[in-house]
């Protein structure tokens, strides 16, 4: 989530005189000190919290899946890749904070590298969320099909993950090509295109909105709606708990991602229509973009909580990890003296005469 921001083409006096007849009511240069001052304080504070919490949560997911658990299902593979994507995206946040505070001081090469890394993991994160929704749909609604394909699920999940990463790299090519350091009040790392290339920029922006919200939201809405209908027909004791988890997943996704997607969409349509705004409106939109983008970054903190810690087995594995870390600091204590916590609690339900264990809500 979080998403990418672009420096829209700003009119200069030469461009106006050459391409227009009367822009006397539009200010050529806005005083943007207030939005910039807000960004210098707000963004680093929010991003610091997101960075710390997100790093801790996603590192726990990676350690748990690589040390304490084997990858036994498609969900396991997708969750591991989602944690990796979020972790790599989080590594770009300190650079973003530094850019907001005193400008970009890391040079062109790191500018391209950081923005490309952010873009790849932004796209891959949402695509893995989409894959998780589809996998859970198959596991619950198409339980018989899922059972027949059980021996090949790991292979399919690895192929799907490889395709997700390839698609994400392909969609990030504009960032790799056109990101550079530009001089305004300070040096900043941005993706800059000529005005003639506005279709490229518009396509990139709309791809962000589509992949960053509408695609995963549409898939989640469909899959979880059908899953909910299937669960309502079942006789599982924890049916209501599972439905509550589904509701929370969709609600939080919309709450944190929709505002920035709307702001980004409006920004793109304004730019395509060459719509110029007065300084107050432009400043308000800059502030709205900063706030909603920061909300979108919170997704990196929530993914481990929503898709990992909600599972009984995963929580037990985390407790085992914490216990082993405590044991390592006590040489007189044998860490292997105790067996791992029990992870036998699983949510199951009966549908169409078949009992299906849901790896979705008891990971």
Automatic annotation (TrEMBL):
Membership in a protein family: Belongs to the G-protein coupled receptor 1 family.
MF GO annotations: C-C chemokine binding; C-C chemokine receptor activity
G-protein coupled receptors family 1 profile domain segment(s): 57-307
GO biological process: calcium-mediated signaling; cell chemotaxis; immune response; positive regulation of cytosolic calcium ion concentration
InterPro entries, per database record: CCR1-9-like (IPR050119), Chemokine_rcpt (IPR000355), CXCR4/ACKR2 (IPR001277), GPCR_Rhodpsn (IPR000276), GPCR_Rhodpsn_7TM (IPR017452)
PANTHER family tied to this protein: C-C CHEMOKINE RECEPTOR TYPE 10, CELL ADHESION MOLECULE
Location within or outside the cell: Cell membrane; Early endosome
Originating species: Acipenser oxyrinchus oxyrinchus
Domain of life: Eukaryota
Keyword Transmembrane attributed: yes
The protein, known as: C-C chemokine receptor type 7-like
Transmembrane region(s): 41-65, 77-95, 122-143, 155-173, 213-232, 244-266
Keyword set, alphabetical order: Cell membrane, Disulfide bond, Endosome, G-protein coupled receptor, Glycoprotein, Membrane, Receptor, Transducer, Transmembrane, Transmembrane helix
Major place of residence: membrane
Membrane topology: Multi-pass membrane protein
GO cellular component: early endosome; external side of plasma membrane
Protein's UniProt keywords contain Membrane: yes
């Amino acid at each position: 989530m979080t998403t990418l921001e672009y420096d829209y083409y700003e009119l200069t006096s030469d461009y106006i005189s050459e391409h227009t007849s009367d822009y006397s009511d539009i200010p050529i240069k806005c005083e943007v000190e207030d939005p910039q001052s807000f960004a210098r304080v707000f963004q680093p504070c929010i991003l610091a919290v997101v960075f710390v919490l997100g790093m801790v949560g996603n590192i726990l997911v990676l350690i748990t899946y690589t040390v304490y658990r084997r990858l036994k299902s498609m969900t396991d593979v997708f969750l591991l890749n989602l944690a990796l994507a979020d972790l790599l995206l989080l590594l770009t946040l300190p650079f973003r904070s530094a850019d907001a505070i005193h400008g970009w001081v890391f040079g062109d090469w790191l500018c391209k590298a950081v923005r490309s890394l952010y873009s790849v993991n932004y796209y891959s994160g949402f695509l893995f969320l989409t894959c998780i929704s589809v996998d859970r749909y198959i596991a619950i609604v198409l339980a018989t099909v899922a059972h027949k394909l059980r021996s090949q699920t790991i292979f399919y999940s690895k192929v799907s993950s490889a395709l997700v990463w390839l698609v994400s790299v392909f969609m990030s090519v504009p960032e790799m090509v056109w990101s550079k350091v530009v001089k305004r009040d300070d040096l900043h790392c941005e993706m800059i295109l000529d005005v003639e290339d506005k279709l490229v920029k518009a396509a990139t922006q709309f791809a962000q909105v589509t992949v960053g919200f509408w695609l995963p939201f549409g898939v989640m809405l469909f899959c979880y709606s059908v899953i909910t209908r299937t669960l309502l027909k079942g006789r599982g004791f924890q049916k209501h708990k599972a439905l509550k988890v589904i509701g929370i997943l969709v609600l939080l996704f919309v709450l944190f991602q929709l505002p920035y997607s709307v702001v980004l969409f409006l920004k793109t349509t304004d730019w395509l229509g060459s719509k110029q705004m007065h300084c107050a409106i432009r400043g308000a939109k800059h502030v709205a973009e900063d706030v909603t983008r920061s909300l979108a970054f919170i997704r990196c903190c929530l993914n481990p909580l929503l898709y990992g810690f909600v599972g009984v087995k995963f929580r037990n594995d985390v407790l085992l990890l914490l216990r082993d870390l405590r044991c390592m600091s006590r040489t007189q204590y044998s860490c292997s003296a105790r067996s791992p916590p029990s992870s036998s609690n699983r949510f199951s339900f009966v549908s169409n005469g078949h009992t299906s264990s849901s790896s979705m809500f008891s990971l």
